[in-house]
Amino acid sequence: MADNLLWKPDWDVARRNLLRWWQGEGLALHLTVRRAAPRPDVAARPVEPTDCEAWWTDPVYRCNRAEWRMANVDFWAEAFPYFDTQIGPGSLGAFLGARLEFDWETVWYWPIIDDPADYGAIRFEPERSRWFAAHMALIEEGLRRSQGRYLVGVPDLIENLDTLAALRGDTPLLFDLIDRPCWVLERLAEINTAYFEAFDMIYERVKDAEGGNAFCAFQIWGPGKTAKLQCDISANLSPEMFRRFVQPYLVAQCERLDFSLYHLDGTNALQQVEPLLEIPRLNGIEWTPQAGRPGGGDPCWYDLYRRIRRGGKSVQAVGVQPNEVIPLIDAVGPEGLYIILSGAVDAHTAEALMRGIEPYRG
């Protein structure tokens, strides 16, 4: 990989800043800027397919759509162009056999484990997985087309209890935690094995010259194996259950990854902050407020961000409005803070933000 991307001329600087953020030492800002006209080296906006499944899975259309979107913004600060290769949230569940239902807004995963006693072990069999092949087709088309302009990301695999919930169903799985905990723990160990079998195969295709990779969720890149981790179903768990059924598998993942960011989703999951801070190799925590609550830049979340930073983890704040950026930095501190704006902005706003954050760069 060259020091820079054609659509991100200062990629070398952005990589250094992202590494400093991972290390808890620096500030990062995801800032995309609307262009007056699309880049000249990209085809016109593609015609959308009439078939919903093709909208998600057709490699040529997906690349055309992604390139059109990237062609209409510039990537400032730590924002970078990448091809998002996921087919809905939770690709690993699809690899392991979950039934997929395509919608124009998302992909639904329907469970396949009716009777745990009869199901057997969970195994990743890439040669037999239609959906792994579909993901790899997207990745290969992206690699063929990128030509130094943008990165190709690892899809949002998702793991542990969330993947088991995709295979078993949320409500049955919550009962399983009480009725058959040993079965759950055995399946979670198998899912962790499957996760790294899939991750490693994808990583070997998309890694850059530094051994780093972009991950399709939450705009992250690191100079090594990099991923977002999560357990959304933990909103239903006590911290004690989290420590038993989730934490050990996150620990194992973090030990095999070089850079890891945990996606903390909604106020019902805030009881898991302390167990997350106990994971030595977890680098950072991202906070997503649920619908109806203030966005990630609101002052009501400052104490949460400070708590995470005091616990030795970097923070990612999402959905931040431009006018919230400087107050957030002042309140939390720039070290180990990655701010994701709520959307692309105009050049005037972007220039003001760049001037505003400069004193905090250190």
Description:
The protein is an alpha/beta fold. It has a single domain (11-360), classed as TIM Barrel (Alpha-Beta Barrel). Helices cover 42% and strands 17% of the residues. The longest helix is centred in the middle third of the chain and has 26 residues, at 181-206.
Keywords for this entry:
362 residues, alpha/beta, two-stranded parallel ribbon, 15 helices, globular
Biggest pleated-sheet summary = 7 strands, mixed
Strand-pairing-aware structural class: alpha/beta
Tally the helices: what do you get? 15
Measured by DSSP, the beta-strand proportion falls in 15-25%
CATH topology: TIM Barrel
Domains counted in the coordinates: how many? Answer: 1
C-alpha-based Rg, rounded: 20 Å
First-last Cα distance: 28 Å
Proper CATH architecture: Alpha-Beta Barrel
Order of helices and strands: HEHHEEHEEHHEHHHEEEHHEHEHEHEH
Mean pLDDT: 97
Short structural description:
With 362 residues, the protein is α/β, with parallel strands linked by helices. 42% of the residues lie in helices and 17% in strands.
